[in-house]
Amino acid sequence: MAPKLRDPSLFKQDVCYVNGEWVKARSAKTFEVHDPATGQLIGTCPEFDAQDTEKAIAAAAAAFEEFRHKTGRERSKLLRKWYDLVVENADDLATLISWENGKPTADAKGEVTYAANFFEWFSEEAPRIYGDTIPSSVPGNRVFTIKEPVGVCGLITPWNFPAAMITRKVGPALAVGCTVVCKAPGETPYTPLALAELAHRAGIPKGVVNVITALGNTPEVGEVLTTNPTVRKVSFTGSTPVGKLLMKQCSGTLKKLSLELGGNAPFIVFDDADVDQAVAGAVASKFRSSGQTCVCANRIFVQRGIYDEFATKFAAKVATFSVGNPFDTGVTHGPLIHSRAIDKVEQHVRDAQQKGARVLLGGHRLPDLGANFYQPTVLVDMTTDMAMASEETFGPVAGLFPFDTEEEVVRIANSTPVGLAGYFFSRDLERVHRVAEHLEVGMVGVNTGLISDPAAPFGGVKESGFGREGSMYGIGEYQVTKMVTYGGMGKKLQS
């Protein structure tokens, strides 16, 4: 049976939110959305095309002319109202996330809280947008800067955090006075559409927030967002190959870009670490959302002196997981998003086995639960020639690599073209600073497996992209700096 919402009007079928109204696709075409746990049809959504997207951009452009002139305090109050409505409807939003994404209820509720907090954070930043006064090198000149909104923003978000990835981008955009066109993920469109309904109830002016959907037409919609000259900023969270394509498409109009792309996070446990603390951190980092996050531990390196102890305790903890339908009581881990995700996980496990790895726990699909379920898996005796060493698994499989020295593990950790997040556990203060500085990543977790926080800047280096989301730095991604030089100010006062 389909889950029930306390407020059924939050479930929006066959319509997108454009210019303050709920509209169908021009072609009337739709695509289907399926429950990853059961395979059953959830509903249908509009298959927007290029012309539909152009209309949404035009609506955002028209709204920008007025919205940009609202005071920071006015924008703050709108974001705060939206935040309050998200909190009031948290249970329904969590239900939608579990239904279309497969996250267990507790995990989904955690995402809603995380998502809401971005609105709260940026509602507090909106009134505090400051320029600078700069001493001029020319006598009689005065120089100051103004921070202005960049303009219409195209936001393209992924399926793994259908609420939080929307709010992490929309929050700062609205805080500074931008308007947005959000391309919701085709796998999980109903959570973003519910957020659009709450934006409407919060009194966000028409055209300021537009949420559109597409599945088969996603490349077409993405090309419009990246090539239309009215769009001055594109923010994308997703894979590195797609990010490179979007960046290339944006080059024709030199848009401002934020790209949060793929990762291959090293998780390092030194022999001076608290093993129990490291096990807890590794479980939290690796198996959150069944391993389907860009900052998941993808390569777990354990120093040989504690390798066996760590592996035994880690596998014992993973063995306590309960896999099943996300709405069932006691379930800790749900399905993967679709069959392609299952196939990749299985390929990585088989590749590792063929090259000498041992399966300590799991290693199989769970067809009795459904087509998209995979057993939480722990592999030991991993080596760097295995696919998991160089490819992002994005699933509930943990591979443990032994290492001997600090220099060796840092070199291996950095031997990848991406650099999003990295983690390590150590009680040696000198090592903490040394390794944190040498890891080639945008974010480092020391003695913790969870680093996401609205107050902390989120983003990577190398082919994991550029730009930062969240925090005091995230708001600048949606601004441009205008310099003003005021001349003729050097005359003496007359008596």
UniProtKB/TrEMBL annotation:
Record: active site: E260
Catalytic activity: succinate semialdehyde + NAD(+) + H2O = succinate + NADH + 2 H(+); succinate semialdehyde + NADP(+) + H2O = succinate + NADPH + 2 H(+)
EC number: 1.2.1.16
Class of the enzyme per the UniProt entry, highest EC level: oxidoreductase
Stretches assigned to coiled coil: none
SUPFAM superfamilies cross-referenced by the UniProt entry: ALDH-like
GO molecular function, one term: succinate-semialdehyde dehydrogenase (NADP+) activity
Oxidoreductase in keyword set: yes
Source organism, top-level taxon: Eukaryota
GO cellular component: cytoplasm
Pathway recorded for this protein: Amino-acid degradation; 4-aminobutanoate degradation
Keywords assigned: Oxidoreductase
Gene Ontology terms describing biological process: gamma-aminobutyric acid catabolic process
Domain spans labelled Aldehyde dehydrogenase: 22-484
Family: Belongs to the aldehyde dehydrogenase family.
Record-given protein name: Succinate-semialdehyde dehydrogenase
Organism, scientific name: Thermothelomyces thermophilus (strain ATCC 42464 / BCRC 31852 / DSM 1799)
Source organism phylogeny: Eukaryota, Fungi, Dikarya, Ascomycota, Pezizomycotina
